[in-house]
């Protein structure tokens, strides 16, 4: 059970600099059930503000509420502000303790409410893991749910952050933005630019608003993909037997979004690969364009296109590989600008004259990150 961060203010000594007990002449009762919620800023231990709330009173004699605070557990309380609402927002890093009084229309002040102590020890544990999956224009994230499972009653939401990422330097940008919040240990960040690497991190927020430390930081890069692409064997239909992950580069070196994932003639030398059928009727994925090679991804079938991880840092042979349903394949291609490009396919069906596959392509030059950030 969570310990309540509330202490009761009683007597003259608890009122700090208030040297006269004013409640005896007041026509209104002391405020009740004072509570608080801090506002997370993205920096654990440094809330951006605090919202105080107490029970509303419709007493006709009530004129105003006064809020008092102090920075420590001893010393004087000072007037922080006054309001006619039963809430009060204090901007900036909160004081340690607060209480509220009510004043009647004759100027008499009530007894103090309970005092609340802003207790950072109520912050939850940080998520211990974070994994990401590259999607087309999006990144899917999932993380350990330990913040919730360790304290279900104290858990409120998760906050998801992102920043730019420099692939060459291996550094996240200095400016982090809030992607959104969720109660589930998963989140999809969408409307992202394909080929633009980003960093991601997650924190847990308690019901009091305290923010945990961040999860491990992960980088990932959205990339285009497509499902259920039909390609014929060149020996059966030449016009639809070739495939090109990308065809033209625009002015900034990125793949033209209108020239990605193209099925075309197997006789065109600028296709990345063709589907070839041998004399035994077996279909092969065969690199065609100069500077293109292919390897099988692992030694067993892959469950999905998203099961394919980084493009392996190996030599990519230029010979064809047998197309096997359920297997994944990774292509390395010469980008013509000093950087390699990487694409992945997963074969879903192999017939006598054609095959069906899913594909993904990383538009970021030299980036081997096809699916999942490690």
What's the topology here?
Elements: E1 6-7, E2 35-39, E3 49-53, E4 62-70, E5 78-83, E6 87-91, E7 97-104, E8 115-117, E9 130-135, E10 138-143, H1 146-150, E11 155-166, E12 171-172, E13 177-182, E14 186-189, E15 198-206, E16 218-220, E17 225-232, E18 242-246, E19 260-264, E20 273-277, E21 283-287, E22 293-296, E23 321-322, E24 328-334, E25 340-350, E26 354-362, E27 372-373
Antiparallel strand pairs: 1-8, 2-3, 3-6, 4-5, 4-7, 7-8, 9-10, 9-27, 10-14, 11-12, 11-13, 11-15, 15-16, 17-26, 18-19, 18-20, 20-21, 21-23, 22-24, 24-25, 25-26
Structure description:
The longest helix is centred in the middle third of the chain and has 5 residues, at 146-150. The chain has one helix spanning 146-150, and strands at residues 6-7, 35-39, 49-53, 62-70, 78-83, 87-91, 97-104, 115-117, 130-135, 138-143, 155-166, 171-172, 177-182, 186-189, 198-206, 218-220, 225-232, 242-246, 260-264, 273-277, 283-287, 293-296, 321-322, 328-334, 340-350, 354-362, 372-373. The radius of gyration is 31 Å and the shape is rod-shaped. The strands form six sheets. The chain has a five-stranded antiparallel beta sheet, with no helix packed on it. Strands 11, 12, 13, 15 and 16 form a five-stranded antiparallel beta sheet that branches. The chain has 374 residues and is mostly beta strands.
Please supply descriptive tags for the structure shown above.
41% strand, 374 residues, mainly beta, single chain, five-stranded antiparallel β-sheet
